Amino acid sequence: MKATVFTPPETKLVIEEVTLDKLGPQDVRVTVEASGVCRSDLSVLRATAEAAGSAGAPPMILGHEGAGVVTAVGTDVRRVKAGDRVIASFVPECGECWYCVRGESNHCETYGGSGAGHVTRSDGSRPLGMSGLGTFAEEMIVHEHAVVPVRTDLPSEQLALIGCGVTTGVGAALWTAQVKPGATVAVFGCGGVGQFVMQGARIAGAARVFAVDPVPMKREHARQAGATDLVDPSSADPVEQIREATGGRGVDYAFEVIGNPNVIMQAYDATRPRGTTVVVGMAAADATITLPAVPLFLQEKRLIGSFYGSAQIRRNFADLVALAESGQLDIGSAVSRRIRLDEVNDAFRAMEAGEVIRSVIC
Ligand SMILES: [Zn+2]
Ligand SMILES: [Zn+2]
């Protein structure tokens, strides 16, 4: 089968023929029908290539947002069977660890970052699979805890996005922040995940949603996602613009969906007293923020993180599928381009150029 292989420090992915392993007892073999190209793929590529330097590092199959059909399962697998449609999850849910039994499975103790890719290249080397997955391939072998079966007629390109962008974004609004009806919300960063934060806020019944992004295409797209007010941070201070529109107070909930310390502080400053700032974006590994301590105390602000939308995948993937089926959640409009596996390098370029919300390999 074909896979795109990333061989650091080389940053261009190369499509090649690889051989899949035999299935282990808890493994599931999946034909990947669709895979979104997410900013985290590019972040991992960049960081890995840089850390590898000229010495190189193990090859890797990127991609962590995918959906497909199960073709075979290991001898001990009970939760899925051949023929099932599945959504892959880059955080497994083992169902038994300390976090899973507390309904906090997005912190499942079996989550181990990038692991075995379960394939061998023609030169005998063994690529890693990003986040235990590696969806930039025709097929993949993953642990049964990393797939969730779904019964739906939604197209695979939409199911794929539930694997990362939809869950991260909608979940941040619904399950992490638990936005209330009538609330005011600001979303800083209107890429794929930001668009889904706005949809989550709309589904929760937010009365007013500010979309903050310097890219006109993303602000315009935000209207479809539920934004009521478009804020261009390059034209004037976005914090001032939001305060001015909210009686000088700021919003009930501000989401930062970039991972930039300065923008996290803007989101914090745009949050009203007693409001909640939610950090959804993944910052650089060494990034820090410095908070003025007195307003934190005096204004009773809450500053919280949101990882994978605080989602419990076995339950919440089905919830998101149901919301999409009912028309309340629009996943399809986030699919800007459908591409082939060998066009993934160009998808990274298009992402950086701000040309797309999501490119999907399908
Ligand atoms: Zn992602
Ligand atoms: Zn667990």
UniProtKB/TrEMBL annotation:
GO cellular component terms given for this protein: cytosol
Cofactor(s) of this protein: Zn(2+)
Protein keywords: Metal-binding, NAD, Oxidoreductase, Zinc
InterPro entries: ADH-like_C, ADH-like_N, ADH_Zn_CS, ER, GroES-like_sf, NAD(P)-bd_dom_sf
A GO term, aspect molecular function: zinc ion binding
Residue ranges constituting the Enoyl reductase (ER) domain according to the UniProt record: 10-361
Domain of life per record: Bacteria
Entry's Gene Ontology BP terms: formaldehyde catabolic process
Stored Pfam families: ADH_N, ADH_zinc_N
CDD domains linked to this entry: Zn_ADH_class_III
Record-stated family: Belongs to the zinc-containing alcohol dehydrogenase family.
The protein's name in its UniProt record: Alcohol dehydrogenase
Organism: Streptomyces capitiformicae
Lineage: Bacteria, Bacillati, Actinomycetota, Actinomycetes, Kitasatosporales
